Amino acid sequence: MNYANFKEYDIANGPGIRFSLFVSGCTHHCKGCFNQETWDFNYGKPFTKETEDYILKEVGQEFYEGLTLLGGEPMEPANQKALLSLVTRFKEMYPQKNLWCFTGYLYDRDLLDNFAKKMPETMELLKRIDVLVDGEFVLEKKDVTLLFKGSSNQRTIDVQKSLTSGTVVPWDPRDTSMSPSSKI
Prior knowledge:
5 helices; 7-stranded mixed sheet; alpha/beta; globular; 20% strand
């Protein structure tokens, strides 16, 4: 897997101050995408063990609320294996921090009913993701007033509650509290 970039001190892609990883590769090609260069799976730099170690070291700083995966497309089958190690280590090292993922795939239809039946990595990732923003960006439904998403068709899902209940449970921002060490 390649990655396009990472963004330190990100406040746009989840609550609090976040470390965000932009992976390369996306087959959705949404009209109006803000990050078209990441559609190319070969764009950017190779995601290495050193890159993973650096991210985990940085996100360990107490002011970081969590880690966000976006792109490109983190849930592309070609990217899932590389991300599984990062996500697993992140949750082991920092269980108090949250993990967000942005995907153009739909949680129920694409991830659970399709990918999870073919690739064990999909369920392993979902077991560790706290919040998933799903659905392709739709330019005609763009809404800059939405919290942490770009178009009104996208859903913000509490993945752990959804996995437990067997139904899609929307993320409730009131369930999110900033860690005591967060600096706002």
